[in-house]
# Entry
Amino acid sequence: FFFHFFFLFRILLLGLKLGSVAMLRLFGEAQQYAWGKIGENSMVAKLVETGIPDFKVEKDSPYAELWMGTHVKAPSHISDNGERVPLSEYLQEHQEAMGSIESEDGQLPFLLKVLSINNMLSIQAHPDKDLAKVLHQRDPENYRDSNHKPELCIALTDFVGLCGFRPLQEISQHIKSYKEFTTVLGDITVAKFNSEMKLGTEMSQKHALQNVFAAIVHAEQNLITVQLRALKCRLEKEDEDHLSTLEKYFLLILNQYPDDVGCFCLFLLNIVQLQPGEAMFLGPNIPHAYISGDCVECMACSDNVVRAGCTNKYKDADTLISMLNYDPKSAKDQLFVPIVDNHVTTFAPPVNDFKVQAIKIEGEETATIEAESTPRIVLVTKGKGSVSISEGDIVTAETGYSFFVPANVKLIASTSTALQCFIASASLHNQ
# Structure
């Protein structure tokens, strides 16, 4: 009896190793950046507290990100035969677990994160691979690798971000409605914008957007300061119920980043409001910023960020102006539409670095996720149940638990109550 109990206990907690195939508990790394939500208000804190033994949440500390993967900045560890081992080290010794991913140093092509955002992140974009190589060669201190960094953001709670340029008609209306914004742009830029709009061609629209964005980020700081404060003073005299969504977020972000040029970018970029389960894809050269909320984020492994506002970090306005995608779209058009198949919702952006599957089951339900040729990371964000693989492993799955799953095995998730989890993997079919 004792042997049987001990055997079952190891299956539930560590995963049963059968030959070269194992599903193992994974332990990510929490990042306590100042912009993160505080204490138990942070989804990151809640997940880490339940998912990592002996981790204690400090009620007054920020918990911004949870990283799961092999990124050298915050590498995850696995539990292998009761010992904590860096995931990359384990993969170097178990290349069969990598499947079709070729990496002698055990590096996964994707990084899975959870973000809990209290204060807005920087106005930014990520370069494509060609530009990333140029930036890394030219300025390796600020661009530390030569990879691109496409990102997928899936909301866990009500989530707000900026993404892509607004339709020109909206920007034109802002020029007419906000004299402070118009003053910063200047008469010449406004005249060019109106002229390009009248032409109505795709190229003229892009020129119009690039000109106004450049005028904003290159404006003199004194002009920015005076006009931001003037607009703030004017809006604060209004009844709060009469303020538009744009005006409310303008005041919120100006309070977080006083006198920052990035506050005027709200008049150019879409404010995208996501409900839990909704997503947006941030491809190369797409201007964006996260404002508030909790999300699951998956990305290619890179640190390349080009910034121009709402940050104390290095800004590279000229590079950002030259690289951005100036295709105007509505906020609704920024939503990424997944494929839904019963209990499995698949978010597969047009990149080969990653995809994400969201699993949601309730009651006496089971979801089967077919085998893939690449390894996967599983994160449980809500509920309790179990996850097993086709080779026989079975592990308990509770809120905050994460697992490494080797290539070429089927996953089966089940519960008697409710279970929600996210599965990240490479997406080589997009090559």
User: Anything to note?
Assistant: The first strand starts at residue 24 and ends at 27. The mean pLDDT is 92. The chain has eleven helices and 24 strands. Residues 202-217 form the longest helix (16 residues).
